[in-house]
Amino acid sequence: MDILIINGGMPRGGRTEFITRFIAKEYQFHYIDIGEIKLPLLTGEQEQWQLPEVVSFKEKMKMADGIILISPEYHGGMSGALKNTLDYLSREELAHKPVALIATAGGGKGGMNCLNNMRIVMRGFYANVIPKQIILDPDCFDYDGNKLWEEPRKLVEEMVKELEMYVKISTNLMLPGK
Ligand SMILES: Cc1cc2nc3c(=O)[nH]c(=O)nc-3n(C[C@H](O)[C@H](O)[C@H](O)COP(=O)(O)O)c2cc1C
Predict the structure, then answer these.
(1) Is the pTM of this model over 0.85?
(2) What is the per-residue pLDDT across 71-126, written as a single tens digit (0 to 9) for each?
């Protein structure tokens, strides 16, 4: 089962990068860091589709059986950089694919709008966004221990299990595009 986790935040050393790497390591998932691949602002010019980083990103997304998208909430939505990166994709890579969502937020009850925004955008790709979703506030992180505290870690565990269940179901159904 090939699950790909996407760090949808650009800042180096941020909580979104931390959690992406933490989950990737814990579950041995492949990951993509949008701050590393740095796709250019989409202009629609033909040359952009031939860029090696664009071709590779699209190929990895297509090959994945399931995706975990993680974004910081920025002003009530996902990060603009993540939206720009996702705009290089089409239904070809994502239709029917199980996708799990995590938002990192600043506390103060933020994060839900980012999740809703990602869910709507994934709907545009006909992706199958799973029911469980998580918001990680700053106090979910054990910075000294380089890990998540037990309770948020359990939420991640439950979400990963649910994602794997949906991946198994969709693999058994041999959905189009795979
Ligand atoms: C430009 C900007 C906008 C933000 N807007 C929100 C917001 O609307 N709601 C929220 O809960 N947090 C907001 N935050 C806080 C971030 O979501 C939070 O600090 C998150 O952990 C940042 O991710 P990072 O640690 O990977 O950089 C914002 C931060 C920035 C830099």
Answers:
(1) yes
(2) 999 999 999 999 999 999 999 999 999 999 999 999 999 999 999 999 999 999 99
Torsion on CA atoms 86, 17, 50, 177, rounded to nearest 10: -50
Query: For ligand 1, atom 22, which residue shows the shortest CA distance?
Result: 72
> Letter for the amino acid at 20?
T
To test the ligand 1 pocket, which listed residue (5, 22, 70, 73) has its Cβ within 8 A of the most ligand atoms? 73
Q: Is the CB of 14 under 6 A from ligand 1?
A: yes
Amino acid, single-letter form, for residue 72: P
Query: What is the distance between the alpha carbons of residues 153 and 27, in angstroms, rounded to a whole number?
Result: 12
For residue 34, the tally of other CB atoms under 10 A from its CB is 22
Q: Alpha carbon of 126 to those of 47, 91, 162: distances in Å?
A: 26, 6, 19
Q: In whole angstroms, give the CA distance from residue 15 to residue 112.
A: 17
Strand partners, 142: 147
Packed helices 150-172 and 15-27: angle between N→C axes, nearest 10 degrees: 60
**Distance from C-alpha of 38 to C-alpha of 50, rounded to nearest angstrom:** 15
